[in-house]
Design a protein that fits this description.
The protein has about 240 residues and is of the alpha/beta class. About 40% of the residues lie in helices and about 20% in strands. The strands form two sheets. The protein has a six-stranded parallel β-sheet, sandwiched between helices. Strands 5-4-6 form a three-stranded antiparallel β-sheet, covered by helices on one side. The longest helix is centred in the N-terminal third of the chain and has 17 residues. It is elongated and about 55 Å long.
Length: about 240
């Protein structure tokens, strides 16, 4: 961890009038949540693209629900890590105005963050494939029998954005609105290649704002970031909070 880069990041944060954050799978991975498939090999014979699509759900809803029930258990059993707590603290101090995440877990909320935008939906939401019915899941879904909508008798599905689906327009619109207002953004644990999330920091830069990148690896964002800190989000953000 580069001390100079940490100091530069702290200066940007202190001088910002409207700071936002964008988080990706790397932040949740530090809580033991696999970035997509489990390391135990249980689902390794499937590609995510074969399970996380409307077509896969239509063809074999039971298989898709089994995978999501497993993912729900992993996520619901996980605990927020120092990165989640640090970002919640930044919001509590009135410094961080909005947190935009590509993650479908609720670890940011459980750490205390209030203003969170989920670009890719949430595993806590279960919704109907046909009507507007949805509910908040306190525990993983029982797959047998398959969950049915109590209002229209159609199948229920996970409230996440699948490959080939549009992001929720209201959430995306709010995310764009937030970064348009931002004079600084923290980008943590994201590969910076998945669109449209990858374009959000670029809007901050276009408006002469500052980019703080935190990632163990270089990304396409590294070259244009004002500060790029090589390290895990939990360790780096925890250090930033302590020094703030």
């Amino acid at each position: 961890m580069n001390v100079n880069e940490i100091e530069k990041a702290i200066n940007i944060i202190k001088n910002s009038k409207y700071l936002t954050a964008l988080t990706g799978a790397g932040v949740s991975a530090e809580s033991g949540i696999p970035t997509f498939r489990g390391k135990d090999g249980l689902w390794n014979k499937y590609k995510p693209e074969e399970l996380a699509t409307p077509q896969a759900f239509n063809a074999n809803p039971e298989l898709v629900w089994e995978w999501y029930a497993w993912r729900m258990k992993v996520v619901f059993d996980a605990e927020p890590n120092p990165a989640h707590h640090a970002l919640a603290k930044l919001e509590e101090k009135g410094i961080l105005k909005c947190l935009i995440t590509q993650n479908v877990d609720d670890l940011h909320e459980r750490a205390g963050s209030k203003n969170v935008l989920h670009l890719h939906g949430s595993l806590r939401i279960v919704k109907c494939i046909s009507c507007n019915y949805q509910f908040y899941a306190e525990k993983p879904i029982e797959v047998k029998p398959l969950p049915i909508c109590p209002e229209c008798n159609q199948l229920l599905r996970p409230g996440v954005v699948w490959f080939g689906e549009m992001l929720p327009s209201d959430v995306l619109s709010k995310a764009f609105s937030e970064v348009e207002r931002s004079d600084a953004i923290i980008v943590a644990g994201t590969s910076a290649v998945v669109q449209p999330a990858a374009s959000l920091p670029l809007i901050v830069r276009r408006n002469k704002g500052k980019i703080i990148e935190i990632n163990p690896d270089e990304t396409p964002l590294t070259a244009i970031a004002d500060v790029s800190i090589r390290g895990k989000a939990g360790e780096v953000l925890d250090e930033i909070i302590k020094l703030l």
